[in-house]
Design a protein that fits this description.
2 copies of one chain form a homodimer. By secondary structure, chain A is an alpha/beta fold. Chain A is built from 10 helices and 15 strands. Chains A and B meet through helix 8 and strand 13 of A and helix 8 and strand 13 of B.
Chain lengths: 330, 330
């Protein structure tokens, strides 16, 4: 039998138990050109909350009654497509379920000799691609520039810290709580990490980076975005990757009141969606894999067990319960 | 005798009569390397309000007791600098006064055969440079793209409309009142102009440009910026030139609540300061002068008389009282 998590009801605010239907279902059967995959790891991403809302965004919402959209990694059990055989390891948009049928063109081979399942959803997966293209292509990071990144203990932010450090740039992270901040400094190599729960981010940023910020990589929005924008340097780039602080309370989202600092500092705020860089994922993945191999990048995953725990595990993303890339083994 | 307008008191909110001291003073005397200029036209610019506030911005504030900063155009009465002679016509930062002494390196010759004094403060002056570099260098306007500009009846906005039209791009202006909107369409050539006083800018933009906006040139901020940001196309550029709606009520300034459209649309918001383009002003001025000569650009100036009317004339910029470039003949 398969076990699936389907969207039962669009949540207002934080998704709750009634958002989902978890059920046993018959094993899905692959058609021509399709694969049956046993899902070994499911990626839990902040963006998931947005996919639950009705309306136009960068991607259509998950439909009511559909299996929750998720990236995953797993093993091919049955192949009806050329180029794939049982036992192959793959990743793709497998959804929150134990077994998935996908068109083979939506499955990408992964090499467990390079990294285990979880890592293909983290630094070698979408979060990795997001950090890489956000920092280098949108943020246009140059040697010697200063970087600040919010949600620095998270999947994307943690890699942004490390990529900037590997480039030799001063980096300050922002994260919630002492334990996360310690990880950001000690494991990811940030020069400093500001605990936003412990005080005035604006003042702490000014202390940590008196010279100001060249690239601010924002995952959170709200008051932290505003604080960072107070300290922009001339021609700074503010990379809008996400705004997790507002995902469960859309009415609370506001723009940075000090957006005119963009004018004063001749600075730029730019959004991006990682899918646009798909033709260049191989390049980024090779770069990150090389850094993993020689230790310039470490991967931190927070792995949970049990597909039935998907609902409460997802909410931890928004309450700060995870350290590093959050992955569920179904 | 000279007659000067000096900053007496930093205003909170709209500048009032007590903001200024207007007085007769002895004629200033040029020293070595300086010119005495009779000011024939004084430029009134929205940015002036910002110069009255204490604190760090893109330019230091006007000091208490100082002659109010302003661009101007006039005639050299006395020269103690090589390359200038009495009768030469010049422009520069002459301040709000009848006679100015300036270092000759801060005076730029102007040719009244090309355009009268007023025009050198308008389409051939800072507003012209602002429109040109904002639209082409920050906005990166490309053939066939759609442009929306706020304060489209103003000095900068009116030229943005015309430059975009000259490029063959669809342009929609936003302005306050029927008379201004008529001018923006009939004289500047906009495809449409939305009267923000007459209804829902957001809905009107969607009607006028169902395909969305590629370049939004913002002079006003507030709800109009937000409305325009609802209709961004993929990879749109939002050019932050100013935010006149908030200049007299800084506490009211807020960022666009829908700034995450930058992410959804992979769009960019970027500020600029025209001074940075000074090395290229000659290029822009030549381009605009050619368009003036062949009629692709028309200049609309709103010329007032009498230096003593500076205080109330300045406030008209913020209450929408002017049509086109506001100039005071002292």
């Amino acid at each position: 039998m398969n076990r699936t998590v389907r969207l039962a009801k669009r949540p207002t605010g934080m998704p709750g138990p009634d958002t989902w239907t978890i059920a046993e279902e018959p094993m899905p059967v692959p058609g021509e050109g399709e694969l049956l995959v046993e899902v070994k790891a499911i990626s839990l991403d902040p963006a998931m909350r947005g996919w639950l809302n009705e309306g136009k965004s960068y991607i259509p919402p998950v439909g009511l009654g559909e299996v929750m959209r998720a990236n995953g990694a797993g093993v091919v059990l049955e192949s009806r497509a050329p180029g794939f055989a049982p036992g192959d390891t793959v990743m793709g948009g497998f959804g929150v379920q134990r077994y998935a049928v996908v068109a083979s063109r939506h499955a990408e081979p992964i090499d467990l000799g390079v990294a285990p399942f979880e890592r293909w959803l983290g630094v070698l997966g979408m979060p990795g691609m997001t950090a890489w293209f956000g920092l280098f292509d949108v943020g246009l990071l140059r040697d010697g520039e200063t970087v600040v990144v919010s949600a620095a203990a998270g999947a994307v932010g943690g890699l942004v810290v490390q990529l900037a450090r590997a480039r030799g740039c001063p980096v300050v992270g922002i994260a919630g709580g002492e334990a996360k901040c310690r990880m950001v400094v000690e494991r990811f190599g940030a020069d400093a990490c500001i605990d936003y729960k412990a005080g005035d981010v604006r003042a702490r940023l000014a202390e940590a980076l008196p010279q100001g910020i060249d690239v601010y990589f924002d995952n959170v929005g709200g008051g932290i975005l505003e604080a960072a924008m107070t300290h922009l340097r001339r021609r700074a780039r503010v990379v809008i990757c996400g705004a997790i602080s507002g995902y469960n309370d859309v009415a609370s989202i506001r723009g940075p009141r000090n957006y005119l600092n963009l004018l004063i500092q001749r600075a730029r705020m730019e959004g991006f969606v990682v899918f646009d860089y798909a033709p260049r994922f191989a390049e980024a993945r090779a770069g990150i894999a090389a850094m993993l191999a020689d230790g310039r990048v470490v991967a931190v995953e927070d792995v949970r067990e049990g597909i039935d725990r998907f609902p409460e595990t997802l909410t931890e993303l928004y309450t700060g319960g995870n350290m590093g890339k959050l992955v569920l083994r179904p």
